[in-house]
Amino acid sequence: MTGAAPVARMAEMRLRTPEGVSFSLRLASPLLRMVALLIDWGVVTVAWGLVAIVMGLLELLAGDFARGATVVLYFLLSQGYRVFTEWAWRGQTLGKRLMKLRVVDARGLRLTLSQVLLRNILRFVDALPGAYAVGGVAALLSARGQRLGDLVAGTLVVWEQTEPSPDLGLLGDNKYNSLRGHAPVVARLRQAVSAKEARVAWQALRRREQLEDRARLALFGELAAHFRAVTKFPPETVDGLSDEQFVRNVVDVLLVK
């Protein structure tokens, strides 16, 4: 009789969105997740220490009510902190942010509020009977290191590598940029577009050769539409430009001073 084969853990996985865009995600190690969990536990503990002082005073005036309110407040604080931060910071708590971890949809789609709620509600089950035993066993049996809450919610925890510095050489040798002759347009773009949005566009240019033709057209069409929506461009600056060339010109004026 032979034993069950061990589960082969994945360090990286490749996803393909419904639009045909493929990309890789590096799965977070158990150690990084544990450190992030401890940081979040410390945040909640410190915050609760402050609340407990107030509740201790209130208990002197209204004992039973204060004790009941204490239980409710602790639940709201401990769970509300994780749900609020993961939703507001798109998959990150303070601990995950410091450790460069992020909760993402396992299919590569946008993380939804229901997924955030579900994975955090099931944290109670993952923590049973203590020290995250259920969640730990589930993660060991999952090739993608998913605890029970992640399996049910369809989420993964990934490690975000530090972004490389933009290689401005990929913008091409063409020195002419129709936007550069319109300083007000460039100023409005730099004011309206965040550094993160500029980096997303740069990443799209960096990976354009890896995309299928249809996905490439769709991606640059969406990026061009986004930039056109944030500011008005004189017709002479965009006439005759493909969406990809338009995005290239926008990235050029955003990243090259």
From TrEMBL:
Membrane disposition: Multi-pass membrane protein
Presence of the UniProt keyword Transmembrane in the record: yes
Ribonucleoprotein is among the record's keywords: no
Primary subcellular site in the record, as a coarse category: membrane
UniProt-annotated location(s): Membrane
InterPro entries recorded: RDD
Chain ranges passing through the membrane: 34-58
Keywords: Membrane, Transmembrane, Transmembrane helix
Domain RDD: 28-154
Name recorded for this polypeptide: RDD family protein
Protein source organism: Actomonas aquatica
